[in-house]
Automatic annotation (TrEMBL):
Protein name as it appears in the record: Ubiquitin-like domain-containing protein
Ranges that cross the membrane: none
GO biological process: regulation of cilium movement
Family membership: Belongs to the CFAP298 family.
PANTHER family to which the protein is assigned, alphabetical: CILIA- AND FLAGELLA-ASSOCIATED PROTEIN 298 (PTHR13238:SF0), PROTEIN C21ORF59 (PTHR13238)
InterPro entries registered for this protein in UniProt: CFAP298
């Protein structure tokens, strides 16, 4: 079998095998389908976080509009009630879900490597909790359980207390907590306005400015239609030629 290293420009994409008897027509078609298919997978993977964070995309006629404009125009997303996530719009993560995701990844690796990975392979070491993160960026992100601290409203949640000691006994309360390593001090407070809200406010402000600009331009041209701007109006008034109406009364 001939092994083809497929590249586009200087960028490496994938390896492909074929026999020497394969026609160029078939070879080109197969490689092109795989190339485009891989690009599709990459696009979908890049869009999945957006789907997870914000849900389904608005219809084209609602995109770019503010909530007030959608209400004013009486627009409705007919797919909003149909396309509901199986776990609900808000999914709370459990350790069982994390373990299930790891098991799925482990199963995918076993399909490709049925004999398993060598003991020094970093993926196998991750699966067996034997990973060595020394000198890596990941080592700065991972927090040991004994070093973990939770903060809420600039207050450290002490391990010896209960959650109700800080937020009360309302079970329907929703709060934002931040996790970090012990000794790093209080984390930065949450902004009063979220990033998405700030973008919407800026978009609304920009559109309002454009509307005011158009109104100002309209006012600037309005005088051209006024009587006082007509250079011949005073002359016609002296001659008694104003307010003349033609046609039968």
């Amino acid at each position: 079998m001939v092994q083809l290293h497929v590249k586009r420009g200087d960028e490496s994409h994938f390896l492909f095998t074929a026999t020497v008897a394969t026609s160029i027509e078939t070879l080109t078609t197969d490689i092109c389908e795989i190339y485009n298919g891989r690009l599709k997978i990459e696009r979908i993977c890049s869009e999945i976080p957006e789907l997870a964070d914000h849900g389904i995309t608005l219809p084209p006629n609602m995109q770019g509009l503010t909530d007030d404009q959608i209400v004013e125009l009486k627009l409705k997303d007919e797919w909003e009630e149909r396309c509901i996530p199986s776990g609900g719009a808000v999914v709370c993560v459990t350790m069982d879900m994390v373990k299930e995701a790891l098991d799925q990844l482990k199963g995918a690796v076993m399909i490709v490597y049925p004999m398993g990975l060598p003991p020094h392979d970093p993926i196998r070491m991750e699966f067996e909790n034997q990973e060595d993160l020394t000198g890596t960026q990941a080592s700065l992100q991972v927090i040991a359980q004994e070093e973990a601290q939770l903060w809420w409203a600039s207050k450290e949640l002490q391990r010896g207390k209960k959650l109700q000691d800080y937020i009360g006994k309302n079970e329907k309360t929703k709060i934002i907590v931040k996790i970090q390593k012990r000794g790093q001090g209080a984390p930065a407070r949450e902004p009063v306005v979220s990033e998405d809200e700030q973008k919407q406010m800026m978009l609304h402000y920009y559109r309002r400015q454009e509307e005011l600009k158009k109104l100002d331009e309209a006012d600037d041209d309005a005088y051209l239609q006024s009587e006082w701007s007509d250079r011949q109006a005073l002359k016609r008034q002296f001659q008694g030629l104003t307010n003349i109406k033609w046609g039968p009364r």
